[in-house]
Amino acid sequence: MIRKLNEQDRAGLLAFLGQDPALNLFLISDVENFGFDREFQEVWGEFEPESGQLKAVLLRYETNYLPYAAVPFDVQGFADIMKQDERMKMLSGSTSIAAQFGPYISFRKEKSMHFAELKELAGEPGAQALAETPAKLATLRDVESICTLMDGIDEFEENPDSMRSGMRRALETGTGRTCFVERDGRTVAAASSTAENSMSAMIVGVATHPDYRGQGLATLIVTKLCSDLTKEGKSLCLFYNNPDAASIYKRIGFRDIGDWSMMYT
After folding, report:
1. What is the C-alpha to C-alpha distance for residues 222 and 190, in angstroms, rounded to an integer?
2. For 73-112, what is each residue's pLDDT tens digit?
3. Could you give all domains of the chain from N- to C-terminal order, each with its CATH number?
């Protein structure tokens, strides 16, 4: 049985999603931050008919849909919900789950990335390393210098205005933080978290200026950021498709747990 969820379902839903907090990062964050009664967000759940236990979830955020299930679920039932929405633009989720919607929804484009999780940090940033290269936590006054660094890096394709407003919003709402390093009067390396919630967070925006690469700055700031977050009891995850970046993440302790797909209608 599939039905729309409401505030009375919050505790059971978060307990269900909390069984896999890294994979369910976006679901947990959206439910904690926006609940069930917003125009831009809806949540459905599928329940076992006999026990009444929640077995699968589908969330709509604006024009994007995100499904999750730990066991076989009513794929067609969720697909029917999405097909009734003419505004739908994207389905995203674990590739093993998202791929099941292929027979029911026509997608024009698909993008996949590796998905990694950090359960145990491989090491802390050394005191000497931090003394030699102080890593700072960003405030609102640092947003422009950090985004200027990202403007000059080809891998970052986000609209400059959206990048700046998104970073400001994350800092203002406490849903993200940024760690950065300055050299020669400018920001030369940075890494951020996003979608922070009570259980998990995602590492994003890892960047080093081309003139300062090969000095271990990315490893230093990502390790510092991950250390702060894991001490708060958060499970960490990230997407990547760059082999060079993967080597940094795996030294810190990230391990691949699957792939993540974004499927566009």
Report:
1. 8
2. 999 999 999 999 999 999 999 999 999 999 999 999 999 9
3. 2-107 (3.40.630), 117-257 (3.40.630.30)
